[in-house]
Design a protein that fits this description.
The protein is of the alpha+beta class. It has helices at 52-61, 81-113, 121-138, 147-165, 173-193; strands spanning 13-18, 29-39, 65-72. The protein is built from five helices and three strands, in the order ββαβαααα.
Length: 197
């Protein structure tokens, strides 16, 4: 296969790349993704001064599974200290948020397709509000003084959605399952941001 041909990936793996400004025009950031958690191993530099992504990678790989990796070119990410490690952790959290967002979209499509009578206009409005608040939280820049208020706002909006959804009772359990799955997914998205607030 010539070097510039489109790569062929095993079933269940994908890759996306784009220019994010590290290089003038060439693609400089790639995301490699597995559709499911995959067994993983890695080899790291033995350099005495590894960059923050290497330090974080060594921690992450101990679990033996990965779902995705980011790779950038041009910037070595070394000698960045605590800020670099914080940025690497935030990048990992954003990666996790991307997966959870995809899961949320799938759940919302499933919820929309169902004829669930528990999804009153109030429930739908509270869900839309919780999603907006969560999106605002995710978009919060690192170090923003309003981050804790956004976290609180997203958590409160999610609690309002959960309250509007109601409590499962005999006979209503299956009707609430999709709505509860959406609530759990949103909770996981909010929780990913917790270390950065």
């Amino acid at each position: 296969m010539p070097f510039h041909d489109r790569p062929v990936f095993p079933r269940g793996f994908r890759c996306a790349s784009r220019n994010v400004g590290l290089k003038p025009t060439a693609k400089d950031l790639a995301l490699f993704v597995s559709d499911v958690d995959a067994a993983a191993a890695a080899v790291f530099t033995r350099n005495k001064f590894p960059g923050a992504p290497v330090l974080l990678g060594r921690e992450t790989i101990k679990g033996g599974t990965l779902r995705a990796i980011f790779a950038n070119s041009k910037v070595s990410n070394v000698a960045t200290g605590a800020v670099g490690l914080e940025n690497a952790r935030r990048m990992a959290a954003l990666e996790r948020t991307a997966f959870l967002t995809r899961e949320l979209i799938d759940l919302l499509v499933e919820l929309q397709a169902s004829d669930d009578v528990t999804l009153t206009d109030t429930v739908r409005d509270r869900l839309a509000h919780a999603i907006r608040e969560s999106a605002d939280l995710i978009a919060t820049p690192l170090g923003d003084p309003g981050a804790s208020d956004r976290f609180r706002g997203a958590s409160e909006a999610l609690a309002e959605y959960q309250s509007a959804l109601g409590t499962p009772t005999a006979g209503r359990r299956t009707e609430l399952a999709a709505g509860a799955a959406v609530e759990l997914c949103l909770r996981r998205i909010i929780d990913v941001t917790r270390p950065f607030v």
